[in-house]
Design goal:
Blueprint: H1 2-24, E1 45-52, E2 70-73, E3 78-85, E4 90-96, E5 108-109, E6 113-115, E7 127-136, E8 141-144, E9 147-151
Parallel strand pairs: 1-3, 2-9
Antiparallel strand pairs: 3-6, 4-7, 5-6, 7-8, 7-9
Length: about 150
């Protein structure tokens, strides 16, 4: 009975850990959208993807401003959460190169935060290209083209 209670609380603890990690790395979860999921949110495991920018919207790590690839597990029901880090005055958008990619729906943008559903459609080991688009308030745009890799 105790083992089952611990297993049931693990996804909640992982979600709290992800939010705390985002706060510690100067990324803000204040723009977090309302939870919209296909199943039980407690079953999903968030994967934070931070795009590290300076105040002008220029990547801090020019060679690798985001993880590439971002690995999302179908079995673990990973959901990707993209954040601007630190939060700059800009809009963040994610566009899949092939429609919805491995997701049932396109990732949803909430200003400085973008949220995906768990990967349901992709085959394990398959890569999906996507574009990260950051638009600053003065109209400057930054485009990056990393990869999402679906894991079992």
């Amino acid at each position: 009975m105790k083992a089952q209670a611990r297993a049931n609380s693990r996804p909640v603890l992982l979600s709290l850990l992800a939010v705390m990690l985002a706060a510690l790395t100067s990324c803000s979860a204040e723009q977090a959208p309302p939870r919209t999921t296909f199943g039980n949110p407690a079953d999903e495991q968030p994967v934070s993807v931070s795009l590290r920018l300076n105040a002008d919207g220029i990547p801090v790590e020019v060679n690798a401003p985001v993880p590439d690839p971002v690995v999302l597990s179908k079995g673990s029901k990973h959901t990707a959460h993209w954040y601007l880090c630190p939060p700059v005055d800009a809009k963040l958008e994610i566009e899949m190169k092939d429609g919805t990619g491995p997701f049932r729906n396109r990732p949803r943008s909430y200003g400085k935060h973008v949220l995906s559903d768990p990967p349901e459609l992709g085959d394990a080991g398959k890569d999906y290209r996507y574009t990260i688009l950051v638009t600053t308030k003065d109209g400057k745009q930054l485009r990056l083209d990393p990869v999402i890799r679906v894991a079992p």
